[in-house]
Sequence to fold (534 residues):
Amino acid sequence: MPPQKRHRDFGWLFIVCAGLLPLVLGILCTAIEARHTVNQQQVSTANTLLSQAEKMSDSAWNMITTLRQYHHRACADIEENLQRAGTLNAYFRSIGMLQGDHISCSSAYGLNHGALAEMMLQPPPVTGKAWWSLSIRGTLGVPDRPAVIFVRQLPDSSGFWAVIDGQYLMDFMHAIGESRGYQMTLQFNGGAIISSGPDEQPGQLYLKSAQYRAESSRYPISVNVTVPATELVKAWRQALFIFLPMAAIFSILLMVLTANWLRRRLSWADEIRRAMRNRQFSVHYQPVYSTDIERCKGAEALMRWQLPNGEMIRPDIFISHAESEGVIVPLTQHLLDLMAEDIQSWQVEPDFHIGFNVAAEHLQHPDFVQDVMRFARRIKDKQMTITLELTERSLIEDGEMVARKLRHLQSHGMKVAIDDFGTGHCALSYLMTFPLDYLKIDRGFINAVEGLETETPVLDAIINLCHKLELDVLGEGVETSLQFAYLRQRGVGLIQGYYYARPMDNDRLRAWLNEHGRKPLLVEESHEPELHHS
Ligand code: G
Ligand code: G
Ligand code: MN
Fold:
């Protein structure tokens, strides 16, 4: 499991969130959309009502203009005409003439002509204008049904008036608003309110009832349209009904994508790529001792991975995952970059060996030679010897091509070593086929050493084989002075292991090279009795 596996514990949370996201967004968007649609309908309804009220006002003023032909005529003469005009024209409850504040003539049957205030059941407004209109609760003849009165006063204190029945307006409001549950009101000149529809109900939160007010530009008419919350909810539910199936599909899609993304994100390959970008890898170097020149002869580069929390990932684990998930090539390229950076600060003598581990897949890769040559160019001025440590496994496939590559690199002064020699599953024939420079004997064989004079058959055989084939030989994992003395005695030229030096980071390596790099390794003598006693 990749190092940052803790992400996985919250994986389901990501997936749930991804699934909820389209739903939550959808619910919000449809609420906004529903509100928007309802508002548009509300505005157009208000405007329709307003224009109807304007049309009625137009016909009232037209009527009054027509009445001016009766100016200065006696009521008895014109009463019949008034009655005809009042009945034949739509909307009108009554029309008539004024003398001062007094109604001098009216189309209404059988009523005593009284004061204007008496007829409209309230004092006339003080407008100071010759033209005015007002919505009123009722008239003397029809006291409990609203109406609108229009009055034109002439300079000689006579005048004309017309009363439109509010029922027309109420019916109209009903017709345009009932199906949507609108509550509508209409007012002329701030007078009595003519209304239709249910009373306002309390709404909740976002979906509380919405009010819209419109005013006429031609007449003092104002209109109010209120949409109850229940209508908003209804519109919202309709929008949801259309949208929800789509949201569900999106939801599923997003969950699948998230799950996929999480899986990818949690793969080793992605963790390793990210770790390279975040510079979590570093290189440690383990010095190699030469028993011939009795000093440090080189170092092996070993990759280290430290997480931001300080935790180290074991190299055998991440290397094997890098190999199986196809990122070992970029990882090794990264290693070479890091090494080239480190090596710029080194001061070593020419022919210092710098070894690094080459994965089988990299060896087969078309970029391999180019990668190594680039590294060689970057550290050219140090005049080091680059050592490629191959595993036996890497030599199995496409041997001829691999051998060609290795020969090419050797022609540029590099050395080829077999790492962990003796542990792979390989025929010894490759010792003849491949251009090898030395073998690194696996520490398993070194561990078998029991005493300086005791034979260690397999180890001895490997050492002899190297001598016969004229290959250099390196003993790995040397941890004791006995092992060291044993190998030196049998002509093993190179030693690597904790006994000589542990792998260390670049800074410590430079300090170590300064202090110990040129010194011979002093070995305590009497290990043989020691070992027998213990
Ligand atoms: O130090 P140590 O624990 O580093 O190494 C464990 C294993 O990981 C060893 O077999 C070693 O060869 C391998 N290893 C360490 N660094 C690298 C590297 O950079 N590339 C490859 N291919 N193997 C490495
Ligand atoms: O590349 P190779 O498989 O040779 O990797 C060397 C590995 O051996 C690294 O993991 C390194 O840390 C480890 N190592 C080096 N010296 C010793 C040693 O003396 N003892 C043990 N146990 N491991 C060692
Ligand atoms: Mn190695």
About this structure: The chain has two domains: 1-269, 279-516. The chain has a mean pLDDT of 90. Residues 83 and 185 are 31 Å apart (CA to CA). The first helix runs from residue 6 to 9.
